[in-house]
Amino acid sequence: MNHPVLVTGAIGDIGRAVVARLARADLPVIATDRVEADANLLGGAALYLRADLPDGIGALAEKLPEKLGAIVHVAGIIHTHPATSIDRETFDAIFATNVFAPLELVAKLHDRVIDGGSIVFVGSLAGLRASPANLLYGASKAALHNAAKSLASDLSGRGVRVNVVAPGLIDTTLTDRTNEDLGALRQRSAQDMARDRSGKIPIGRIGRPEDVAGCVAYLLSDEATFVTGAEFLITGGGHL
Fold it and tell me: Where are the transmembrane segments (predicted)?
């Protein structure tokens, strides 16, 4: 692939792993996130452009090349809360970041993705089943999963493939924070929550960001040219 891959949420644990994995495959990468950073934070593996999605999508589009080989949308936020405790401000914030931002990004950039290119969304197992104390996050990811299938159908005429990777429990700072929040809700320690949650994974370990990145790399490769509208569960069997 000669055209660059755009990776959003590139400074997070999964985003950094994706950038590193694509760099090892000698793919040119344009990385973006909402924080001030430089390519050194990503090991010099990518051109870095700061963009706060969704508000900064227009400005980001002006800085991007006319052709992209692929888009990998990793950016997202989570909010842990009882299912009976939601408010409009939190709802709007989560859905703006987790649903509207990726869809507007594709709406503005789909015509720049080359024929036969690829779009990958990082969804979540929470979008496919009940997610305790994460109602809004799970609902937002479910919406993204569904939207990806519609996009896969609409963009198939140019051979552009759209797929979702759905991580389960992955060793990230986001997971650490969720364990703390869940522990606070249940009057338990974050360590207890981490043990309980990881103990339910059949394969016997928590996932690594590199596990997710490997699946993303496959979906961008020539080996996945007949794969679109699919969901890949990166859960270690945690969905069983």
Answer: none
Helix residue ranges, H only, the chain: 13-24, 57-63, 88-95, 101-109, 135-154, 173-186, 190-198, 209-220
- Is the pTM here over 0.85, yes or no? yes
Please report which helix (H) or strand (E) contains residue 164, including its range. Answer: strand 161-167
Q: Which of 69, 137, 152, 234 is catalytic?
A: 137
Annotation says 48 is catalytic:
no
Give the phi and the psi of residue 173 in degrees, each rounded to 5. -65, -30
Q: Using one digit for the tens of pLDDT, what is the confidence trace for 65-120?
A: 999 999 999 999 998 988 888 899 999 999 999 999 999 999 999 999 999 999 99
Mean pLDDT of 214-229: 98
Measured in residues, the chain has a length of 240
Lay out the sheet containing 161-167: strands in order across: 47-50, 29-33, 5-8, 68-73, 113-122, 161-167, 231-234
